[in-house]
């Protein structure tokens, strides 16, 4: 018998409920039979200040291991240092963010039949962080759109569509107003689209796309967006199926990939053992597929969906009473049944 593949993966447990949901996911992955050595990088115990996060150590670990799983990390509003999440994407050149949004049977939502994918450029746009005070009371923030990044993310979207047998891509923009920046993004998407005649290409203005998502999200297959629009609409889309706690997220660079939960750190319930690990677990499923562990990934996802479908182990965020440990144990037991 061939020995099981062994992987070394960077784990950034995150803050708040991050360590709890990370431990739950580690437990499930181990039960699925995947051999992972975790290179854990976290803020020193008892230190809460964002500036104390060992950023350089984390970056070095991800570059070394090429794969990472990350729990939620807090970002201060207005004051405080720059977001660690954004800094990691920039430093590691994680140019593509991908968020599949699909209904979970057993989770109440306004829509059924939602199965779309958000593909977001992840390194530039207003998130380049180039802003300054011109004079007191006047601030300028620069929106950076480049041909290189726009072409790269468009090709990522079309290649993903082809590999996963997706049929349609909507490029989302505001080129009616930002004719140069969003115009360049559209021009690059159109150029790449000519190389993929098997995939239908459409365009939609971002404000209309927001309305159309609410009116009928099933009309979308893949949505291709610049950074800021992608951030906003991916959260909106998650709200259609139960919230950020129900969606995974993956970030790809040329040589590395980082998978993460994109919900908040929920400090109000941290340490109470009631957090829902679903978002990080689904992100880990994406990670396992990236590592070639297809069988384990499918076993975990099938078990998770069974737990939700049966509805016996709902966590408190979904109206149930199951603890994090009980939910985790139920997923593992469901895997064993399969």
Can you give a write-up of this model?
The chain has 338 residues and is of the alpha/beta class. It is built from ten helices and twelve strands. It has helices spanning 18-31, 55-65, 84-91, 147-163, 181-193, 206-215, 227-239, 278-290, 294-310, 324-337, and strands at 6-12, 35-40, 67-70, 96-102, 115-121, 131-135, 138-141, 168-173, 200-205, 222-225, 249-252, 257-260. The strands form two sheets. It has a ten-stranded mixed sheet, sandwiched between helices. Strands 6-7 form a two-stranded antiparallel ribbon. Helix 1 (18-31) packs across helix 8 (278-290) and helix 8 (278-290) runs antiparallel to helix 9. The longest helix has 17 residues, at 147-163. It is globular. The two termini are 22 Å apart. 41% of the residues are buried.
Summarize this, please?
This protein is α/β, with parallel strands linked by helices and 338 residues long. It is built from 10 helices and 12 strands. The two termini are 22 Å apart.
Task: Considering the chains and any ligands shown, give keywords for the structure.
single chain, 338 residues, alpha/beta, two-stranded antiparallel ribbon, 10 helices, 38% helix, globular
User: Which range does the strand content fall in?
Assistant: 15-25%
How many strand units? 12
Low-pLDDT runs of 5+ residues are none
**Category by helix and strand content:** alpha/beta
- Alpha-carbon distance between the two ends: 22 Å
Gyration radius, to the nearest Å?
Answer: 20 Å
Mean pLDDT: 93
The tally of helices reads 10
Give the biggest sheet.
10 strands, mixed
Q: Helix and strand succession? A: EHEHEHEEEEHEHEHEHEEHHH
